[in-house]
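Quick note —
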Amino acid sequence: MVKNWGIKLDILDVGWGSIAAVTWGSPIIAILIFAILAVNILLLVLNRTDTLDVDIWNYHHMAIVGIMVYFVTHNIWLALLSTIVMAVITFKLSDWTAPLVEKFFGLPGVSLPTVSALSSVIIAAPLNAIIDRIPGLNKIDFSLKDAQKYLGIFGEPMMIGLFLGGIIGFLAKYPVADIMRIAVEMAAVLVLIPKMISLFAEGLMPISEAAQKFTQEKFKGKKLLIGLDAAVIVGNSSVITTSLVVIPLTIVLATLLPGNRVLPFADLAVVAFRIAMVVAIARGNLFRSILIGLVVMSAVLYGGTITSPVLTELAASVGLDVGGGGLITSFAATSLTVSFLVFEAFIHHPIIWVPVLLIVIGAVWFYIEKVKKFRNFEENKNIA
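Predicted structure written out below.
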């Protein structure tokens, strides 16, 4: 598709795996990982989070911000503080979105402290609330179940995958045989992945229950949320369907957005992680999920464009071959909206912007906790 459309963008998306390698190859990674773990334990002891993050691998999403801050400022304290801020934001977003994870995805007692999924929440939640207040737009509600109801067999996930795969193959100008192959593969994706992920999630539940039992003993009966990788939710049929629509549209966005220089490539495969919580916030409404998902991906493209020079230099400094000396980015690292905002605050006049950032975080925390307490009070009153 990129070749046929003549797209010319000079920042290559090399994928989250390369960025993770940069993170784990940093000389300060051990300090930052320990800091994230310490923050999690401290917040649990102080009863300021319900999330016990056992997904150590994904700590790299929080640590990369500190590593990039250190690369720019050469200040270990700013790097450490930026990582701590990322950790606090991540654990609180995990707490606040846990009810969605339970109700929409059917995973009780689980939270998802994966920045690549949670970062979309700060765009999706307010945008969804705005759509709720726009007459006409707030009435559009079309879900995968509606497609199955009104379209019959053509609304089944298999047929939707067949159609979307055919469209993608057609836009790529593949031969007929290859178009048919891609269509069948897409159909298989929509049928098999939800079943595979459901088994994966089922397999994680005993671990979650054992962790719950252990933590109840250690934390005096406090019911904790076990922080797992967001991989447990990306197999949802609505998430996959939305992702299959958003992926080709992201390539179109890359060509149309003024100022964007990112060529989407390797991380197109993990768009589902960026979209999963959007789908939950939209309650499975495909129209809203796609609309908000495109806004989320636009922010990712701009974040990647702005921070690419730093990320490219950092990658080169740890020996990552960036291929011909060109600029690189990914749909991870500081392309993610939360990571981007924290990174920018810590490298541009931190004396001014870090306090502003902390005040905003504190205000949001206070507001959401206050709303949560009010809702709990109302629920208890109704029960009484």
